[in-house]
Task: inverse folding
């Protein structure tokens, strides 16, 4: 059964549950990675000027810039796919899905940056929020619309029975011939 654009059936439920479990696992990793104390000899001041850290990284050039910028882009990027999978909506506006996912990622990134203010060795960086959000949006755009389109096509071409009926049929039900009432 399909209501309000949600996938129905046990296979769809397994997809949503798997997406939710992977989402929780990824968020636990992000919390560990971003909120663990660092033992550093000095701490840089917070970066509250947009693009200042990105410009500084690009000035370094080469591998350090790619590692810093790429790391921020990739950190929350899986949320671009995992949030829609955990939501389980099949029929939804691509723009609404992108905006909802990007907004959730931006709020999560801001929350992480705010929590970092109390962690030794971690510094607040507005560029991390921007790059995390862009990474989520890029991952969403690269995977989700094509995945939904493929699922909708599969669902229309008979995959619906596969979603709704998981177990093979066990044969005909035996029938008992009718017996009349005794005198």
Result:
């Amino acid at each position: 059964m399909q209501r309000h654009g949600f996938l129905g059936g046990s296979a769809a439920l397994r997809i949503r549950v798997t997406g939710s479990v992977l989402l929780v696992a990824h968020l636990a990793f992000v919390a560990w990675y971003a909120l663990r104390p660092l033992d550093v000899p000095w701490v840089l001041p917070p970066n509250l000027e947009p693009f200042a850290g990105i410009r500084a990284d690009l000035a370094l050039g080469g591998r350090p810039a790619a590692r810093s910028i790429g790391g921020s882009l990739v950190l929350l990027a899986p949320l671009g796919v995992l949030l829609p999978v955990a939501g389980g909506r099949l029929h939804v506006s691509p723009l609404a899905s992108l905006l909802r996912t990007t907004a959730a990622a931006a709020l999560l990134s801001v929350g992480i940056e705010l929590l970092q203010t109390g962690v030794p060795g971690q510094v607040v960086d507005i560029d991390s929020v921007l790059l995390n959000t862009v990474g989520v949006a890029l991952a969403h755009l690269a995977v989700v619309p094509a995945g939904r389109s493929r699922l909708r096509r599969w669902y229309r071409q008979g995959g619906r029975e596969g979603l709704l009926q998981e177990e093979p049929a066990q044969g005909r039900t035996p029938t008992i011939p009718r017996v009349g009432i005794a005198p």
